[in-house]
Amino acid sequence: MLRIESLSKSFDKGKTFALKDVSFSLKEGDVYAIVGESGSGKTTLIRLIAGLESPDHGFIELNGVQVSSIKKMVSPEKRKIGLVFQEYALFPHLTLFQNILYGISKQKNKTTRATEVLELVGLAEMKDRYPHQLSGGQQQRVALARALAPNPSLLILDEPFSNLDAMLRAQLRNEVFDIVKKAGVTAIFVTHDTQDALTVADEILILQKGKLVQKDAAANLYTKPSSVYVASLFGNTIQLSKELQSVFECPLKADCCHAIRNENIAINDECEYVTNATVLKKTFMGSDTQLYIKLDNGEHLTVITKHSHIDDRITIGFNSKDVLEFKE
Amino acid sequence: MKQAGSSNIFSIKNRLLRLKRDSNRWSLITLFLVFLIALPVISIAFKLFDGPGETWPHMVKNLLVQYLSNSFYLLIVCSFLVLLFGITTSWLVSRFEFPFRKQLEWLLILPLAIPSYIVAYAYAGIFDYGGTLELLQRFLGIEFTRIDIMNRFGLAFVLSISLFPYVYVSARAFFLNQANNLLEASRVLGVSEWNSFFRLILPLARPAIIAGLILVLMEVLNDYGAATYFGVSTFTTGIFRSWFSLEEPETAIYLSALLILIVFALILFEKWQRRKMQFTNAKIGNQRIYRKTVSKKMQLLILIIVSFPVLFGFLLPLCQLLYWAFLTYSAVFEYEFLMLSLQTFGIAIITAAVTVIAATALIFASKWNRIGIIKNISRLGVLGYAIPGAVVAIGVMIPTIHLDKWLMGVLNSAFSYSSGFLIHGTLIALVYAYVVRFLAVAYNPIESTTLKVSDTIPDASKTLGVGNFKTFFKIEFPLIKTGILSGFILVFIDVLKELPLTLILKPFHINTLAVKAFEYASDERVMEAAIPSLFIIFTAMLPVLFLNKLLVNK
Q1: pLDDT digit string, tens, across residues A50-80
Q2: For a designed S-S bond to B528, which of A129, B340, B504, B520 qualifies (C-beta 3.0 to 4.6 A apart)?
Q3: Given CA atoms B386, B389, B391, B394 in this order, what sign does their dihedral have?
Q4: Are A91 and B370 an interchain contact pair (Cβ–Cβ within 8 Å)?
Q5: A57 → closest Cβ in B9, B466, B474
Q6: Cross-chain CB nearest to B21 (options A54, A80, A103)
Q7: pTM, 2 dp
Q8: ipTM, interface predicted TM-score of the complex
Q9: What is the pLDDT of residues A207-223, one digit of tens each?
Q10: How far is A219 from chain B (nearest CA, A)?
Q11: Would you call A89 and B466 a contact, using CB atoms and an 8 Å cutoff?
């Protein structure tokens, strides 16, 4: 339903690119997450999709119609894209109900529809309040209801949970995506938190420095990351250098780059590749214990284990199925 | 499609394609508005090609040196005096606690409510033969010693004492917002109060202070009423003279062009001195300044120093005017005067409304236009404020006369109807000139409230299917109406006080309070000028306080 082809955008006439040659397409009804650090071009990408920015190159097609290209721009108000802004952008001088009516004022059954979406987000009894009288989580849900009211063909949520504290965040994340699933709308949500993305997205798009580096289902991203960067987004990794390969006696392909996830290193001698190490420091971290160890060749590593009783001399190892391989 | 090289993306062909895509009617409207504002200056520039008038060589030989030396004398002496008054008062009220500090803090702004030509009339009345000072000295039995102030130093003093609040306001805003932590850090490092002020605070406050100073200097160059009353020949009086006495527009245009050059040099100097001064914008905490308590003697000394400009810039001229008003109210206060006041307020209201609409249109059209260069060009619209009123008036006259001649020709040939001037000499030309000159006055408060509304708010409205225009009325207007209101009031006041532009462009049968006061003063009936002057002052006073509140809150 959304197709993007070699999309580029620069804010300084080509010196640097906020977005460079990005292409992908999205299927109707799925939930997508766009993950990237700040400055990776996430916000630029969704502003381009919404029509709030115009591309320098490439095009965007929405439901088979070209909406942005170098020759043409369909204005944002004609795109039927719902956008939930990071800071919610509720209209401060309108009540909650008026905020929601705003986008559907021309519809016949607007009051019914507004009440419907308010019930969907569970705020029906607060409809006459003003935005500043609501908590952060409530404002978030109003913003969602307002964006859903006109039945957008695509819903975009920009860092929807970044302004909330950790507890509220997890709770609201599930609530919001229950609502999104119920509405059956295609949704893109932007986040820098991989946990958010893994929990709710059918597919995840990884942006790095303005480029799309991988687009895949969550499980695939974890097991088959396309680069060290992608691998590192989903947990700590240890790069398997030539030295480490010889210590563990695991010869790997020379023209590839390899890494192992920290949690895949085990403390026992039943692994395929093992070596001995001295524990230099143990740090208790609640359910886990972090070990700072020295391998026999002198290299230092940090590993995490669930065991609480650790000897000073240990054997560590990993299995070949857990080795990540990148072409770099 | 394969990898697109960046050179290809920014090829001329692709740039043009994007330019075509991004241009919309708002780009055109922005350019059109800027063109209208710039038209007077453009007209003057084009008229220069017609060559100077017959008297120009005479002007260059005999008068230009005088204009230049007097104008520069005023710029230098006024700079010195306004910096002295402005910086001392703003630092003392920001740093020290003393009796009546709160009252003096806003009283120090009130000199702005009195136009400088009115201060000039009042001072002339005090120091003249048979003036208030002589009466007072005679009453006290002291021998009369006359102080002559009708010269260029007297003029510089009068202008400075009535204009220093520009420096006071901008310096105080800096001292209140930024100076506290810096000063504390400096004192903790063992630097004395005196040294901290000169080595740290003053250099940091420099951009703010100079910004205020430039406003003062522009007003000095703009002044006609005070200079002509004191008999000092400046550029502005020279423009009037060549236009009205010598009846030589070409010479007036050449003088105007020179004056524009001086003003632009001032603006460039202001930009240059601010070139690397981002640090003044850095947030250094917004704690209020901790005011020092000093000994009773010191407090008294501070009180005297701070009261001086209030006394001489506001209370003294006000008392003189009230005294004159008491002597003349029965003669002046008649039906015609009431009509005159209504006429003035009417013109001010119309102008304020048009200016506010123009400023809002410029701000939003430039926002809705998607071409970056045009956004930058739109900032040129505020430069009209820098251009002296007399120059704006002449710049407006040139195109309006041309347009009128063309219109008359068209009407004559099409309907064989011979009309008079349709724009020149009418309210339209006057209001147009006011808008050119005062656009910035409305633009700044409206822009600053607009900047307070996050861009995502109108963006949200657009993604909800509502276009720019409707978004403005439903969302942005309710959120920025305080800015629009302050813009309206400030323009209203400026129109009330305006003299040189109004003198040149006002329609024959229409008058304003300012012009009336000027006419009384020119006819040697300066006492009668008091009533219209007081009307202007009292109307201007309330918003001056309002402006103060706005600046303190910022």
Answers
A1: 999 999 999 999 999 999 999 999 999 999 9
A2: B520
A3: positive
A4: no
A5: B9
A6: A54
A7: 0.88
A8: 0.86
A9: 999 999 999 998 888 88
A10: 29
A11: no
